[in-house]
């Protein structure tokens, strides 16, 4: 058996880490496998980069100018297909291919012509069954159910024209007739797929997993360094802070909560710092995952006011370090917790979030229950489910 995974990254970001984890499981079983990627650089033994960062940036510019997002990057896709021709895989597992690195028409037509290849496609967002958007919750749009047109967020993807109808219809055409099984990390996304033009395809839910040998209760001197020994620490972690991730919610919380509380945000930058009040501690990045585990462990509550999400691994990481969660009811975020380790608040209900924070401090969840919940998301168990899928067809 030969397995090829295709993704924007290899080892970086949540999707890149999933690819590497699956690859390592396959390699340990003696199964030949490869990861084709385009962004950044990886020293992983199975990684093959098929386009340069500069090329990807140029294709992103072309896409924004002419509007047909997902239908450029022809030379990179030719190179990708040439690798597939050489390797002759039994399985192609596609992850994220909407980073301006793949011409989906060329790739899908190639796969249609090679019906002996079994295709798995992990949807990490909604892009494959919409015109443009990976998410549509914040604009409350349901056009994707029947036909995309007049896209309300088109300018994020196409500066001059709306090609959402063309893109929607073309994706629908290209995805018809493929030997494909769709995988989603959350029940929420699986439900959306079943409402879309992909509803007749089999859908398998495989949750994201994390490394429990890294994310575990970890001692830290963070409180002493920042003079927070008597504070209740509310932690937020994201790597693209903005309204989607709830930056404005944290700013509002900093106004409504008294000095007993300290908000700490990780993954910020200088531009974000300019928006933050002085009573929020901003950490641009941690040196490694162990340092991140220290921050989870020392915090009292992990707050995730995300407004659009699939299945955020930051929630799992927090639980694994013994820290309970408060999250908005968005996407698959609520699926990660149960009644023993967190609260779910309706989206945009900041007052409800304030009340939940105070209640959780008054009646805290046990670290033991948080850690117990996190164990069901052990990456070794979760990503083994991918390998089991592969084994079933061989």
Looking at the structure, the CATH topology of the largest domain is Rossmann fold
Largest sheet at a glance?
7 strands, parallel
Question: Which secondary-structure class do the elements indicate?
Answer: alpha/beta
Rg on CA atoms, Å: 22 Å
How big a fraction of the residues is strand?
5-15%
CATH architecture of the largest domain: 3-Layer(aba) Sandwich
Instruction: Please give the order of strands in the largest beta sheet.
Output: 3-2-1-4-5-6-7
Tally the beta strands: 13
CATH class of the largest domain: Alpha Beta
Question: How much helical structure, as a percent, in the residues?
Answer: 25-40%
- How many structural domains are formed by the residues? 2
Uncertain spans: none
The CATH superfamily of the largest domain is Glycogen Phosphorylase B
Could you give the topology of this structure?
Blueprint lengths: L1 E5 L6 H16 L3 E6 L9 E3 L3 H14 L7 H14 L3 E4 L9 H10 L4 E5 L41 H12 L4 E5 L2 H7 L9 E3 L16 H5 L5 E6 L9 H10 L4 E6 L3 H4 L6 E4 L5 H10 L2 E4 L8 H8 L4 E4 L13 E4 L4 H13 L4 H8 L4 H14 L2
Parallel strand pairs: 1-2, 1-4, 2-3, 4-5, 5-6, 6-7, 8-9, 8-11, 9-10, 11-12, 12-13
Helix pairs in contact: 1-14, 3-4, 4-5, 11-13
